[in-house]
Structures
1.
Amino acid sequence: MTTTLATRVAALCEAGRLAGPGPFAETVLGHLGVVLPEGPSTVVLPEGPPAVALTDGLTLAYAHPAVTRVGPVGTSGRDAALRVSGTLPRVPYGATSTVLVLTEGPGGPLLFPVDPARTTAVPGTNLAGEPRDTLQLHDYAVAAGDVHPLTPAELAEAGLRAALARAALIAGAAERCVELTVQHTTNRVQFGRPLSHFQAVKQEEARLIEESALVRAAVDAAARELSPVAVAAAKAQASASVAEIARIAHQLHGAIGFTELSELRFATTRLWSWRDEDGDESYWTALLGRAALAADDVWALLAV
């Protein structure tokens, strides 16, 4: 599993570097043993109070349509269905992908797919223009064969993988900022010499490279060992570094970096958007703090 996860994380870093469109981060959750549908798929995870209200519990219809009962997930029944009502806010590519919802059900955590064509979709985007659609579910019926019970550990791991995937995208976009900035300062001539020959520019470039390296190192460490502490450190570092990475890159590009078709803008607007998704630095540093307070050996915790 470690090798597979590391490979996926490396691919996500490259996707972030290239600013490719598509729900790449969400595909990392495919490890849960669920057969993914053909075509693009995206994932909705619980964040705080569940965004989905499961109404009427689990309704099971047997041979006679007038016979129904409420039972736990896994009860046999050819026409069994889960009835779902609620709102799925800001789903990445939600209107054009099969949406996999992970949430708390009547009998514990579960996963089920949602077809956006059977919902009321409200289009939306993040700062980078990536689709973040809100889906309204009204008594949405899910076939029993599509309801997949999860353990609490699997649900928690899905959240960790989502955060690590987003951190990997940030790492790739940060590396792209470094590439574009070094290229620009090398080629741009000011006062008779390239910008990269000025001491102040060299110092800022070094800080940019340092921040990007910090993010990639934290992401690679979490890819080797998927633990709450490692993932929290990776996402916290990635989100915290966004401001400095974007500041330096834009400062060294000048106004050129803000133009509509600038390659740098494609990277930095994604950095600003991904910083807050799947938990920002405040969320994950608070988790790290609680882990440190509860640890018997803080050094062992930090040295994983």
2.
Amino acid sequence: MTITYDGIAGRAAKVDATGTIPTENWQELVASGYFGVFHPPHLGGTGGDAAEQVAAMEALARACSGTYWTATVSALLCGNLLRTYGNEKHHDLVRSLVTGERLAAFAIVETAAGSDASTYQTLVRRTGDGFTISGEKSRITNAPRADLAVTLARREVVDDGPEWCLAFVELDQPGVRRYDIPHMGLRGMPWGGIVYTDAHVDEANVIPVPFTELAEGMTWGWLLVSIAAIATAESALAASVRHARQRVSFGRPLAHMEGIQAQLADSRAQLDAARILAIRAATERVAGHSAKELIGMLKVYATELAVEITQRAVQIHGATGVTTGHEVERHYRDAQMNVVGAFATNRLREQLAENLTQTPATYRPSPHLPN
């Protein structure tokens, strides 16, 4: 898919300023076939290969990060979770995401916990006509606007199955309340919470899943965040190059100054390395392999690199770069969101190290600190 989202890019500053994605953005995505590139033809998609998927993702993320997050969490992350853990009965749900008719959220994080799933309390209970779900999910992409939530929950276990499940919850029903949470970057992305109070879930939409398998599904989220980071960094670098060519200081363009040249060269080399890793990881993932460690490394490297590159862009622009409404100021705020989004890089580093050394981390209380 070689598409440039010029219309979406032209509206990006307004999306950031208003915190709202206009209808025109969604219409442009539907017309381009963006939602379908992640899914096979029998589900209404185009079955794009890894290179096509990465190119499509980066093109949209460069145009508008908030629109990218909203669309890609729904189509890529939630769509693949529905495909992986659902069955043929759930194909219509996937098709509704592919057409852009519906919007989905992946409801995992709770108010008292982010990366520590052991503290999650959202519970699914059996009733006479299916199940009910109760609990609160917070800091969830698309939560305030979504039609459907792929929700991680515990089961009130009455059999020998796993304690955990994915519940596909229709959000337009009694027992569901949503709210917005203001956020620093990705301002166009709907972000907030979902409160379930004995909300109904059809029996077919509660899928018991061993917790160890869930990380495989969530790896799609790490990938989409990594591509967002690469795109944001690329946009910040392009803005820096333009500014360095045009800005004259001490009788010469900034681009002729060795300090500026070094920053631009470092950014270019590091960003290309991140993109190569992204294509490699996506190729493995789209081919049906786990690629969990590759994508974990990519998530750590790409998201933190994007913060570094956008910070350089701010320095190259000087006071202009910290002016509200400037392109670089927006990229810097967006880059920060990707570091903690989907899975904080600090926790991901711990997991990578545990896999590398084959020694799971254990908690040992310090005698010098309170528990």
3.
Amino acid sequence: MTDAAFPITSHNPADPSDVLLQIPAPGASGAADAVGRARAAQPDWLLGGAAARSAALGAVAAAIDAAAAELTALAVREVGKPLAEARAEVARTAAIWRYYAQAPYEPVGAVHETAAGPGLLLTRRRPHGVAALITPWNFPFAIPSWKAAPALAAGNAVVLKPAPEATACAQRLAEIVQQALPDEVFTLLPGGATEGQALVSTADAVSFTGSTAVGRDVARAATERGVPVQAEMGGLNAAIVLPDADIERAAAHLAAAIAGYAGQKCTATSRVIAVGAALAPLREALAAALRAVPVGDPADAATVSGPLISEAARDQVGDARRGLSPVVGGTVPDGPGWYAAPTLVEKVPPGHRLLREEVFGPLAVLLPADDLAHAVHLTNSVPYGLVTSVHTADLDATLCGLDRLDTGMIRINAPSTGVDFHLPFGGTKASSHGPREQGRAALEFYTSTRTYTLSPSKAT
């Protein structure tokens, strides 16, 4: 059988001959059917009450913990996630479900006095109905979970359409979730663009994570229908290193953020901005740190940078660095996997694609800046604004510069990568559209506020 015979095909990126699954796509009619079944199941899920929803989400967390070794191995095999990162993602996934298991007990509104006369004014948040979740392959358990758990906690039904490259992970996650929930409350919809477009055209709320181009189409289609939509898209993230920073520590953080999981994170560092005298020592320290990054089999516990998700992704990294001056760019393992060496380039001409476009790989640009103001200007000069890391010992400089950074998240003396799931996640400009994800912000997105006026039935 060929991939063409089965539109949904998942390969092991460390060994492309290892095919995890090949299945037919359900098509647009399959998406419409999934939404219809979810919509029929949603009212009973909501009316079952807070205790039932809390218990179900808690059961999912416990089941993920129990299956941690299996899920870890599946993420390593299907999406090439290094073993240590895969373990951490599975642990975080369980923690996400456990966190939102308490959400059904949280207040959903407020009571207000009327402006004049007897009565009460109430606000109450209610679920939208069916939440469509369109998710990427790079965090195959965590991203579907940080979308699904708050949607379900608030009383919505969910239809999940994962990226084709992570279909096996999504299938296993769906099995775990469905065992804890009533029938049709959580539905898996495998597929590609056809299924995704059909889902956006029928669901009651849409949450998307993926490329900027697709995210804009999703946001436009949902907005035209008048349904709530959030889209988390690309990043071209900068790390600013000031001369007073601990250069060795900063270099270690940057190497992890550039090369960890082969740079396949929307929060990865793509631009390193060295301020003034920091340039020379940082250049040397970061080159050494990147040379030391273990590249290889993601199943090896020592590996930090595994394969790219596809041959096309690997080739894109090579095309992006072609003709540039490398500070460092090592060798890759022999063998069949789609690997790229962690690479730092410099002397990049203005307007180069690396200064305008996200390249999802272990590749970053080293840029000099005269001072903090210049560094902030360089950071803000790209179409994206997801996260910036700032490395300095000067709190005053940090406080003065932070509010001028046009990014949704700012991390001080830490890698640009890393997510705190109990806080809002999102960016500015082309990185995000709509309300924030995660934390209490997610519960607000998956519900709408209704205002009730309660007046006495008889004059008093």
4.
Amino acid sequence: MGSTSDPSSTADGTSRRDLIKRSAALGLISVPTMGFLSACASGGGDDDTDTDTEGKTSEKNPFGVKEGTKLDVVIFKGGYGDDYAKAWEASFEKKWGVTSTHTGTQEITGKLQPRFNAGNPPDIVDDSGAQQIPIDVLYKNGQLLDLAEVLDAPSIDDPSKKVRDTLIPGTLDAGMQGGKVVALNYIYTVWGLWYSGKLFEEKGWEAPRTWDDFLAISKDAKSQGIGGLAHQGKYPYYINVAIMDLIAKTGGLDAMKAIDNLEPDAFVGSDAATAAVEAIYEVVEKGYLMPGTNGLTHTESQTRWNQYKAAFITSGSWLENEQLKQTPEDFDMKFLPMPLLPDSALPFEAIRAGSGEPFIIPAKAKNLPAAKEFMRTMLSKEWSTLFAKEANSLTILKDGVDSGVELRPGTQSAVEASKAAGDNTFRYLYTEWYSEMGTAIENASNELMAKRIQPKEWLKRAQAAVDKQAKDPESKKNRRD
């Protein structure tokens, strides 16, 4: 997607340039990426890495990029589009004389699984979206490069620093498997609820801070023929944004870590998990869901929300970019932290925030020198700014965007929410570490939202997924303190 210009200030006169400058100071920690659906990967074929791609190394060319070689780039063409990657590739060719084969697609598994299986993967991949190949599956099959060499290389902007030291603290965590960083979660993201500023102003609604206020708006919306909550029914990852945020905000970081650490009382026996899933089920029972939302894809549900058929929707901050063509010009998209249940451990301002959108370098990439340099350059201010211009979003690079870049209302709203959250940010890692478990919990949520099971059964199924994962000896390598 490409960005377009917006007014340069908010309603209170805050300049968007100031917001971007301030975002550099947000020491945010990382979030899971969008590992919506699991897929199976199998081992690669023969190791036929082409040594013709290796050039001479030097201080300015630490990986030995060779002029005249080719780079095979695959980008998930979702909410952020792929124009930013085309701009990167043009810049890379100009500097290094390396031409790129560019593929922009949503069919990551369909297009890439056969290539991984044959030992002929691309050189660099944005492995995201509903058809993502799970990072843990690729890692277990030995198909991912350890990115330590890239992260320990000199920063392009300040060679006295390592690349890893120029990133927002904690943003590498979501790409770790077995203690190694094997995926670079590049995009700064927040997760939560979203609403239309225009609709709320017209209806006289105030953004709710408590769950009771959220339910009151949903009730009023229903009385006027509007859904209270929309969710992307065919991808239950999205409703788990609400469930899991409520667990973390109600029970605090210990409740969140219990899930990531596969505790025997992560769900069954957890007061926070019980309260969270019962709160979501109340929305279902009282008929506050947007009609039909359970059977819709993400874009179908989001488009109906853009048509003012629901007050709220759950999503991450790619939502605004994904819905550019469907969003009315005066919609005034706004981000909202998850409202609080009674006696919550975390404040209303607390949000799930950090890094998303995993970029990987396959272990059998043909042009490893260029792939490593390409990733190193992604973490330069020049390319981070290119990304912000084209994709209307921030990256994990500290102070990574030139002050002249303007962001759209929803992204601006997310930046403001991040500033308000300060250190009150959290993130789950089970979606990266344990894709099979994540899918099992999503499947339970799908049944819950359709009223085929009730909260008690959801808790049982979620706990069963945790207990099954805990039996895998590999799980012991992943631990949150």
